[in-house]
Specification:
The chain is of the alpha+beta class. The protein has 20 helices and 32 strands. The strands form 8 sheets. Strands 24-25-26-27-1-30-29-28 form an 8-stranded mixed β-sheet. The protein has a 4-stranded antiparallel β-sheet with strand order 2-3-4-6, with no helix packed on it. A 4-stranded antiparallel β-sheet has the order 7-8-9-11, with no helix packed on it. β20 and β21 form a beta hairpin. The radius of gyration is 30 Å and the shape is globular. The two termini are 46 Å apart.
């Protein structure tokens, strides 16, 4: 089974650009060559950009260090940035940014991070970005810009572009002419005087000495059918090869050195049942390249044809006498969604779509070893719920605030924009923290509510309805801006580390490996029915039973109503027995089974040969108990002390913890309900008889109940905001403010960390976890994304319920008294470890909050931990 991924979004990275004009908004990314090397200043470091109309926004980001001055927006007046009009390359001394608009080309020469490392600019977690001095550069410098010459007798401007730096240091811009053909504009090396040169590549310059291809007619001019739709460039053997995918469905390879077309291929030859397609002009065709030392140069071609699409992967093969051919590797049918972007690696095709409901869809597939042609799904983070469920015993204001300011839901900029609209732009929002923004939102909604009240007296229920009305109005406004910022623009995968990112209009979503047990629970129905084995079990019979059991869990999940899900959540919050809560949910399911779901579940259960073995496998995969304590005294090198230590990495890792906790809490809930249903069915579905029923009742149900409580706790603390920490009690690393600049509103600063788990990870947990990983892998110097981030997330998830006491000690040291009291309260009924230490911590919290009388009562009453 292939690795599965899910998305985690970093909200404070990108601000939405003004609305695009001529060309569609787009995005891309550049990964430093040494981003995967442990001891490099560019490890886990990359640049991503987005374009909209006349603007380009660039952000340099690192998962190891906080980069200062890492954001820049460039605006080209009276121009539009072309699709593919931004590219970034690095040289030994510089990072070179090439930008192409419909009227001009530009080159920005910035210092390479390895050349600007100065001790006075660097602390342990802070470093200057390469954009620090970008304001000193001029976009109109004649040595680094040029106006695109107009072609005689041709109207319009270029509509696509690809740019690159040659081995000689020249900046080349290949432009797709609106009348067909390619124009290449060249800027000389930055330290070489001279003028701009222009070369036109026309079909009349094609050479007829090619092997395996002879044009049926040599035409002097390009026809509109030869309009270039997508361009890509690769430097090989001291020459620049320009690949052009054209409107006539043909792929052409041009040599810039010889100004000749060396290869032409009809892409429809790789498309089955292409009858009638040839008469249609291609509009959405795309082209991507990938190079590796093992496979050489591969081309990924997407053909957009009516009712379907196809990815074709080809390999460029060189023969003698400067002759080239294409070797077909794979053809992959696309899904019905609208393609936004795709990227090609040395082994996989990653694609980004939007479906009919405007839902983002990301999938990938190995193009060499997937004979079934089945795409692997990525579990994209869903948008916030359209409606907020409010319990009859809950305050609407507190409920909405909890949803608005919990992780995984809204960006700060979406809330700020909604707040400005809600206030009708009457007040300017100052630089505020998350806590301050929360107060601003509360004040705005409550003020609006009070101003609408005309009656002097009304019932409590009437006031509650008013609260729901006004808070839902503000929430709807936030939803609109969040949806706009979530618009997918591009997809990037690092060839050095394998890190994949989904680039959206307002933020970046990182694609993290999905653990096998989570993948089973989240997978689509067709996957569960098509797979015959699973990586959580080696024995084929057990694998089959696990898949059958998960299918039953999916039926249980669908049958649990939102009301009963809320009741079970509330029961866990109030420290009631998970087993009793599961029985109540099951009673409700049995009483309201109008669709005969219980019968369907019973039929499936009868097909499971050894259900207890299957349950034990699933419980083992979700177990949070560790065999040994993580080493706390390990010394780490400076490179390890920085690894995954930036504000972005802290948010990323802890959001991943929240995602895992939410998924597994639901998994354990459904498993516990199913186990209770097993007890009701008894020998009717248990082939093993009474022995298995006894094991289920005495072992498996208590383990499921314990895990449900553990993941409920983990979910709670990963969503619970930390209190403002006094600056004299925290490490200097926590004093960094990450500033989010918005296009139409003031800056919003967020103090990191945001949640209780983030606080623990940043102050204590990260160094211990990284030390643990590298104490087991002393020789590892390459940062492979899937392996590293999975280990970090898995080890961090163990800490809240770990026998070690570092987590509550961290809360106490950072004055999180309210959060520590809640932590002790939630673990009290089920955790039998460190009871005395927990009581001591609770007493300290009471004293800190001025409740000393509660401590004195213990000497007489010895009350429970709530």
């Amino acid at each position: 089974m292939e690795d599965m991924f899910f998305t985690v979004s970093i909200f404070s990275c990108v601000s939405p650009l003004p609305g695009g004009l001529k060309f569609a908004d787009s995005a891309g990314a550049f990964h430093y060559e040494e981003s995967g090397k442990l001891l490099s200043v560019t490890s886990n470091r990359f640049i991503h950009w987005s374009t909209s109309g006349d603007s380009v926004q660039l952000v340099e980001q690192s998962l190891d260090t906080n980069l200062l001055n890492n954001w820049v927006r460039l605006r080209f007046n009276h121009c539009s940035v072309l699709p593919g009009g931004v590219s970034i390359q690095e040289t030994l001394n510089n990072v070179v940014i090439l930008i192409c608009t419909n009227q001009s080309v530009h080159r920005l020469l910035l210092p390479h991070p390895t050349r600007m490392y100065r001790s006075e600019l660097v602390t342990e977690l802070h470093m200057q970005s390469i954009f620090t001095d970008v304001g000193k550069l001029s976009l109109q410098d004649s040595a680094h810009s040029a106006v695109i010459p107009s072609q005689v007798g041709q109207a319009g401007s270029p509509h696509s572009c690809s740019s690159w730096i040659s081995h000689q240091g020249e900046a080349h811009y290949a432009l797709a002419s609106p009348a067909g053909g390619i124009m290449v504009v060249t800027l000389l090396p930055h330290d070489t005087p001279g003028s701009v040169s222009v070369v036109e590549l026309k079909q009349s310059s094609m050479m007829s000495r090619l092997s395996g291809w002879m044009p049926s007619a040599i035409r002097g001019d390009q026809s509109p059918a030869d309009l270039v739709l997508s361009l890509a460039v690769r430097e090989l053997e001291e020459d620049s090869f320009i690949f052009a995918l054209c409107q006539d469905h043909r792929l052409r390879m041009w040599s810039l050195r010889e100004q000749a077309c060396l290869l032409e291929a009809d892409m429809l030859e790789y498309l089955p049942s292409c009858k009638g397609v040839r008469r249609l002009s291609g509009q959405g065709h795309r082209l991507r390249l990938a190079f590796s030392s093992t496979t050489g140069l591969c081309l990924g071609v997407y053909l957009a044809v009516p009712q379907r699409g196809q990815f074709t992967v080809l390999q460029l093969v060189a023969t003698d006498n400067n002759r080239y051919s294409l070797e077909h590797i794979s053809s992959l049918l696309s899904t019905q969604e609208t393609l936004v972007d795709f990227t090609l690696t040395s082994s996989d095709v990653w694609a980004l779509w939007v479906d009919e409901s405007n839902i983002t869809v990301v999938k990938y597939i190995n193009f060499e070893h997937n004979t079934a042609g089945q795409w692997n799904q990525v579990f994209v983070q869903p948008p916030p719920e359209e409606e907020v469920q409010i319990g009859v015993d809950l305050d609407p204001r507190e409920t909405y605030l909890e949803v608005l300011f919990s992780p995984l839901r809204f960006t700060a900029s979406a809330i700020v924009k909604a707040l400005q609209i809600y206030r009708r732009g009457s007040e300017r929002i100052s630089d505020v923290s998350w806590e301050g923004l929360k107060k601003e939102v509360t004040q705005a909604v409550e003020t609006e509510l009070q101003s609408s009240v005309t009656e002097f007296e009304f019932s409590q229920e009437e006031y509650r309805q008013l609260q729901v009305e006004f808070w839902s109005r503000f929430y709807s406004c936030c939803l609109q801006y969040q949806e706009a910022q979530s618009t997918p623009l591009g997809l990037t995968v690092s060839q050095h580390t394998g890190m994949a990112c989904l680039l959206r209009k307002g933020f970046v979503s990182f694609l993290l490996p999905c653990f096998a047990v989570d993948h089973l629970y989240l997978s689509y129905e067709q996957y569960l029915f098509s797979e015959e084995e699973t990586p959580v079990a080696e024995d084929p019979e057990v694998s089959r039973d696990v898949l059958q059991l998960v299918q039953c869990l999916r039926l249980v999940s669908d049958a649990v109503s939102p009301e009963m899900a809320y009741e079970m959540e509330k029961a866990l919050d109030y420290m009631q027995s998970p087993e009793r809560a599961a029985e109540l949910v099951l009673e409700n399911m049995l009483c309201n089974d109008s669709d005969n779901v219980i019968v369907d579940i019973q039929n499936k259960l009868q097909d499971i040969r050894n259900p207890t073995a299957a349950m034990m496998v699933l419980l083992r995969e979700m177990d949070l108990e560790t065999d040994s304590e993580l080493g706390q005294g390990l010394n780490t090198r400076i490179s390890l002390s920085q690894l995954y230590g930036s504000s972005s990495a802290v948010s990323l890792v802890c959001q991943a913890i929240c995602h895992v906790a939410m998924t597994r809490a639901l998994f354990c809930r459904d498993l516990l309900i199913l186990q209770k249903l097993y007890l009701r069915f008894g020998d009717n579905v248990f082939l093993g008889g009474g022995a298995q029923l006894l094991q289920l009742q005495q072992d498996l149900i208590p383990r499921s109940s314990h895990l449900l409580s553990s993941y409920h706790l983990l979910k709670h603390i990963s969503q619970n905001l930390a209190s403002s920490v006094p600056m004299d009690t925290i490490d200097a690393n926590l004093q960094h403010l990450t500033v989010l600049e918005l296009s139409d509103c003031p800056a919003v600063s967020t103090l990191s960390p945001q949640t209780v788990v983030e606080l623990f990870y940043q102050t204590v947990g990260r160094r211990i976890i990284i030390s643990q990983i590298y104490s087991q892998q002393q020789t590892c110097s390459v940062l492979l994304w899937n392996h590293m981030i999975s280990n970090v997330v898995q080890l961090l998830a163990h800490w809240p319920s770990n026998p070690g006491f570092l987590f509550p000690e961290c809360l106490m040291a950072n004055c999180q008294f309210t959060q520590l009291q809640e932590y002790v309260r939630l673990i009290g009924p089920w955790c039998q470890v460190n009871i005395g230490s927990c009581r001591f911590m609770l007493g300290q919290c009471y004293l800190a909050n001025g409740e000393g009388q509660k401590v004195s009562c213990w000497f007489l009453l010895d009350p429970p931990l709530h």
